[in-house]
Structure formats: structure tokens, C-alpha cells
Amino acid sequence: MIVWINGAFGAGKTSAARELLDLIPNSTLYDPELTGGALRRLLPRKRLAEVGDFQDLPIWRRLVVDTAAALLAEVGGVLVVPMTLIRQEYRDEIFGGLAARRIEVRHVVLTPDETILRGRIEERAACEAAQEPVREPVRVAVGAGGRGAAAGTAPGAVAEAADRARRWSLEHLAPFRDARDGWLAADAYPVDNSALSAAETARAIAAAVTGGQAAPCDIVQTPAPTGETTAAGVLLFDEQDRFLLVDPTYKPGWEFPGGVVEPGEPPARAGMREVAEELGLRLDTVPQLLLVDWERPRHPGFGGLRLLFDGGRLPTAEAHRLRLPGAELRAWRFVTEQEAADLLPPVRYTRLRWALRARERGTVLNLEAGVPVGG
Predict the structure, then answer these.
(1) What DSSP letter does each residue of 48-63 carry, written as one string?
(2) Using omega within 30 degrees of 0 as the cis cutoff, is the peptide bond preceding 300 cis?
(3) DSSP state of 351
(4) What span, in angstroms and rounded, lies between the C-alpha atoms of 372 and 293?
(5) Could you report the per-residue pLDDT of 100-116, keeping only the tens digit for each?
(6) For residue 182, what are the contacts with CB-CB under 8 A and spacing of at least 6?
(7) Is 74 helix (H, G, I), strand (E, B) or coil?
(8) Collapsing DSSP states into helix, strand and coil, what is residue 201?
(9) Cα 274–Cα 280–Cα 285 angle in degrees, nearest 5
(10) What's the start-to-end Cα distance of the chain, in Å?
(11) 3-state secondary structure of 40
(12) 0.85 surpassed by pTM
């Protein structure tokens, strides 16, 4: 099990996490900051310059999942992870990866008053500028000085790095506030630690976890594939010729209804089964094939065949009866091709565009890595 402690920069996550180790038997601290710090030494400067935050690096998100899983396999018990997550798609990717490894996550968010947060950030910056130890390191932008200047750095450089960290932390208070009042409100158990010490905060978290108030995240994910797979997606259209997309809880980006074809299962029937499971909708006829796309293996994926089918038109009255499994999908919507460009990852959007062209022409297209082949 993982207890993930979320919160704005300066909320006291790491201090509370350390205290929590004494309250939860057989628990171990994993700070993903360490993974980000290692990447600063491993990745080329050119790559680091392309992002403003460690979390924007796909390798960081993969390593957080892999490291957490490896630690649990090594030491067992409970992993306590203090880490700010503002972007919901990053939460989807990380928590979905953990769910794929059958690792349960209890998500807690610290919500101290913003005036207290600002005071803590200012105090920490002053301590760092004076080269004094602080209780909780601040995560800062890749190019903003890391956790502080290295030993032996000139005092002026230390103060400059501390000021950059201070400004970066303050700039991220508003985005975190939006996340706290938005998706985090439904995803994490809140603990207001405005008037609590680190030890008191840890006791509140422990009580919420053991008492069930901080319940396991309602997220379902199939195990990660170990080889090539075949997946079947189904395009369902409304009366305005828009098509249906769904928003998975376990990975970033929107998706077509559908999923992996089971061994021995006809692909079109697999698409029908997935539509029934995901949307509560049973298709009367077998959908027509629009395209087959071969997806090249690309670490950490194995690639395989991706098929898109035309599921036909969905009357408005029937669309209003759609029911989503909360553990897998959080939302659905009908969109235009232009709107889909902002929702789908590039690979899936390319596949969609060709599927729509195939539908317009009444044909079936054969693609290799998103490019039509064979005329």
C-alpha cells in the first residue's frame, strides 16, 4: 500500500511523512524528489532545458512508478510518499501505473491556509539564504536551482537560488489552489493542518487511513502488457456527426471506447464488449471496420495492432442513459474532429483522422505507425 501525501509547496508534506513512519507499522519513506535530483545528473542539459519541472519529464513519471513498486517488492509494508501533484493527467499516469501493479494508493491532501503557506515559503527562503537547515525541501523547477546550492557555493549564489525557489513556489500556489478546489476535491482526503504540528498532522493522516476515511483510490487498471497486444476501439456518433470520447481515470488523455482484445476473442466483438462494460450500451449489430494501425514497439510499450470500428449513430435519448464505471472512466463527451485535437494524444489523434477519412470514403485503411500503406 502507498500513502500519498499531496499538498502545495510548504504544506509540510515531508515533515508529516517522517512523523507518519512512527505511526504506521512497517512503513518506508520514498521521496520522488530524489528521483528528480538524479535526473538532473543523468539527462543531457539540452533535455532538461526543454521542461520547467521534473514532473514534465515522462521518464520521471515512469521512474516514480517503477521505484515505488521496486521498493515495495524489496521491503514490503507501506510506502509513504510526500509529493505534490497538481496536474490531473500526471496523477492518472502515476496512480494508473501503480494500479496496474496491483498497488493500492490512499491519497491525502494537506490544505493549510494560504497565508500560512506563504509564510512558510518566505521563512524557508530566508533560512536557505542564510545556509541554515530547513525541515522540508522545496521542489523547484529544473532550472531553478534544485533543492539548494551545493556545499561550497558562494553566499551570493545561495541567496539567489533561495530567491528563485521562493518565487517558483509562490507562483505555483494559484495552480495548486485550482487543483485543490477542482479534481483533488473528489480524489483525495483533505487534512487541514493550518494549526497542526507535523506530528499532529501525521496523527490525522494515520487516523484517516486506518479509519477508512482515506479510502483506496477508486481506480482500475489491467496489468501492463508483456508483449504485443491487439486493441479494438469503437467510434459512436451523435446526430450532429460528432463522436464519443471517454476520459480514463488511469492514464492521461482521452480515449475511444474500447480496449484490449482477449485471447481467442474476435476484435469486433471485443469492441462491443468494451462498449457494454464502459458505457452500459449494447450494440445491436457488429460494428464495421474503419482501419487497422500497426503501432511500433516503443519502450515501455510493446506495440501491436490497433483497430477502429464504426459503431454507428447514437440517438440523443440513448446517449443520456450512458453510465460510466467510476473506477475506470470519469467523463464522456461528444466532440468534433477539431476539438479532439486538444483531448487525444498525438498518436490516437492521427489514428482518428484516418478513421474519419475512411468513414467518409466508405473504405478500410491499413496503417503502419499512423501512415496509410498499400494504396
Answers:
(1) HTT-SSGGG-HHHHHH
(2) yes
(3) H
(4) 8
(5) 888 999 999 999 998 88
(6) none
(7) helix
(8) helix
(9) 65
(10) 52
(11) helix
(12) no
